[in-house]
Structures are given as structure tokens and as C-alpha cells.
Amino acid sequence: MNRKEIISCAAIGVVLTSAVLAGFAGWYGSEKRNAQLQSELAELRRQERISAVKKSVSQQMEEIANEQKVISDEQREEAMQQTKIANELRERSEEERHNAIVAQQIAIASERKALDAFDQAEQQRKIAEHQRIQAELSKRMTDTLSFISLGRSLGSMAITQHHIGNQELSDLLTYAAYHFTWKYGGDVYNPSIYQPLSLASQSTSKWDVHEGAITNTKMLTRDGKNILTVSSYGEIQRHQKEGDKLVSKTLFFDKKYDFRNVYPDMDKNIIYALSRTGHLVIRTMTSTKILEIKGITNPTKMSPLGKNTLIIGEDAIALFDPVTEMIRVRHVDFHIVSSGSSNKNPLLFDDKGNIYEVKSLDEIVAKKSPVTGQIISYVSNKQYKVFGMNDGNIYLINNNGVVKKFIGHRSRVTKLRFNGNNLYSSSLDGTVNMWDATKDRTEPVTLYSDNCWILHFSFDIGVNHLWVGNQKGHLAEALVSIPIMAEMVQKRLKRNFTQSEWNYYIGPNVPYESFTNDGKEVKP
Q1: For the chain, what is the largest distance between any 2 Cα atoms, rounded to a whole number of angstroms?
Q2: What is the CB neighbour count within 10 angstroms for residue 413?
Q3: If 0-12 CB within 10 Å is exposed, 13-18 middle and 19+ buried, where does residue 211 land?
């Protein structure tokens, strides 16, 4: 085959190939278009089905909505009906509430009128009650004053009957005086009540126990049955009360000593007795020691100062150590006449009325005296300071500086003591008096009297019995408890008042009372 044929065949081949390719391309494009149309047709059918479904659903929803609308219309109609009913009820309720408010206002007004009427009635009742109470109070006060006056009158008559020897009637009058005074709140320590009780109870005993004057007494037991005394004749004695008897024992005796103060240390069974001669006698259960205090003139008092004891003379003070028995003396430039104690520190009083507080042997502080005159005795408590003077007057000063003057002793006050609000004092005039610090009344009650100097006194723990030592060496015990004395007098009563005696002494308008334990009335 030549080249021309080859080229011709090649060209024919190319043409045929191109025709084939063109035909294939046309067929492929036709097929692709058909497939696309088929797909679009299928999609349109699907959309048509969906539209049909949606149309059906929409129709169903519309039907449901119509049904809901019918129901809603029915409910709205029912709600409107309920609202109408509710409005009618509300209007009716409002009307009833208004009526209730009006009724309440009417009730409140009525209640207010009733309360006003009640208040007026209550006010009238209170006025009447107050007038009744005032009338009863006035009557009670009148009765009280009347019966207190009756008690004092009966007491005076009891003393008269006692002195003329009619003890039976005196006892009746004494107890009646106490009974009416106590029952109506009177002062049973008034002298007109106390004195007949003291006489009727026969509660004072006296024993001659010392050769010299009893200068100091100390209780050894709380029951008041054991007491220690010292005398100006050098005697130290211990006394024990056994029934009506007093058993005395001399612990030391030497007439060259002049004892003025005694202090028993009960824990160690040691007795310290201070002699005006300048000696300190130390008495134990087995021995006696005598210490001389040099450089001090006429020591008369001992006072605690810390753990030691301050010994007080006229021109000097001395510090005594009970452990080492050492004594250190300090002279002072003033004349000491008496001493006391305040805030646990000794106080010194000079002959010019000045006061000095001893804080230590080396520290003595001068203090201004609140009273004028020579101070002989002193006592204090949390409320009062009391000064006993050389002229027998007593000055009581409270924490506010208010001064009250007690006038009752005729000579120097030798000792003062407090028990509660009661102040007790003794004097060289031979009396032991009791004063009430809280009352304006400044008259004393004389608990005990003697015909010689009283230098010292003591009480038992209950302040029921008073022990007194006098200048003649007599030791006396006096019952000073009003309740105990009254009980003793009542037990001694042998009979009651006759009706005629009652009418005469007490009065026919006073209901009759029995004073004896058996309660039997004695017929005239």
C-alpha cells in the first residue's frame, strides 16, 4: 500500500471515528437529559404527594381549629356567665361587708359607752375602796397607837406592882405590856417594856470574883458559858457557867501587876495579858512567861497590826512579834489617852482630840477629827463611825458625814460595840446602854445598871447574854434578849387576868385574851 492509500485510509478512519464519537456524544447527552427529566418528574410527583398530605393535614387542622373555636366560644360564654354570677356575688358581699362595718361601728360605739360606764363605776369603786382602806388604816393607826400606849402604860404599872411586892400581878402586867407592844409593831426595847421584863424575868446574876477592878473580859466559847477576865490586882481568871453557878479558876495572880488588856489565842492555848506596869504576861497551859516592855509608860491596850500586836502606852507604842517574842518601841510626841481600830489599822487618840492612824511602827498618819473633845472609846462598821467622849456623850457619824449625838451617859464612855444596827455602850456612870443607830430617837435602853464604874463588857455569840465587869471586881451576867425574857415571864405566869382585872387594866372594849399556856380564864 502506498503512502496515498495509507493516508486516505487514515483519513477515512479518522472521519469514521469522529462520526462514531459524535454519535456516542449525542446519545449520551440525550440519555442524560432523559434521566434529568425523569428525576425532575419524580421530584414533582413527590412534591405533589407532600402538598396533598399538607393539604389534608391543613384541612384536618382547620377542622380541629373550628372545633376548638366552638369549644372556646362555649367556654367564653360560660366564663362570662360565671363572671356575671361572681359580680353579683361580689356586689352582694360588698353590701353585706358594708352592713357588717356599720354594725361593727354601732357595736364599738355601744362597747365604748359600756366601757365608759364601767370605768366610771370602777373609778367610783376605787374611790370607795381607797376611802375604806384609808378609814381602816386610820383606825389601825389609831388602834396601833392606842395599844402601844396601852403597852407602855401596862409596863409602868408592872414596875409599880413589882416594887410593892405584888409579883403575880406584876408578871401579868409585864407580859401584857410586851404582848400588845409586840403585836402592834411597837418598840419592845422601849424602857417601859424592857425594864419590867428584866425585873420579872429575874435574869441578872452577879458574882464577886476579883480582888481588884475587872478591866477586861473576853468570851472563850460561842455559847457564852466560858469567859476570861483580868483585874487591876494582877489576876487572870477563867470562869465557866454551870446552871446558876459560876465556877472560877485563877490562872495567874500577882498583885504587883495591873492588868488592863487580855487577848486569848485559842488556837495555840496562849493568853497574853498586858499590865500597866510595863509587863506582858504570856500564859500557856504549862508555863508562864513575863516580858518587860522597856521604854514605854503605862501600856494599857493591845491591837492587831498585821501578823503582830501593837502595844499602846501613853507616850509610846511597841510592836510585839508573838513568834520571836521580840518587842520594838517607838516614842511619839503626843499624849495617848485611848485607842481603837479602823480598816484593820490601830487608831490612837490624844488628850487634845486628835486622831492618828498607825499603818506600821514607822508610819503614823495624823487625821482630822470629826468631833470636838477628848475621845475615850471608838467603834466602826461599814455604815457608821462612833466616838465615845470623856464627858459621856456619843457621836455617831454615817458615811455621808451626818452626825447624830447620843446623850445618855453621865460620865466617860469606857467601851463601844456594834451588833447590826444596835450600838452598845458602857460608862463610868455604871450603866450599859443600847441605842438604835437607824432611828431618830436617841434615848437609850439601859440593859444593865450598877452602883460603880463599869470598865468592860462582852456578849455571847447570839447577843442574848451580857457579861459585865465592874470596878469592885464583880462579874455579872444579864439576859438581854426580849423574846427569851418574855418566854420566861410567860412560863412563870400562875394565872390569867380576871375579867374585872382585864376591864380595869386593859379595858372592856378589848377582847379578852389568855396569856397562860393552859388558856384558862380566872374567874373573879
Answers
A1: 207
A2: 28
A3: middle
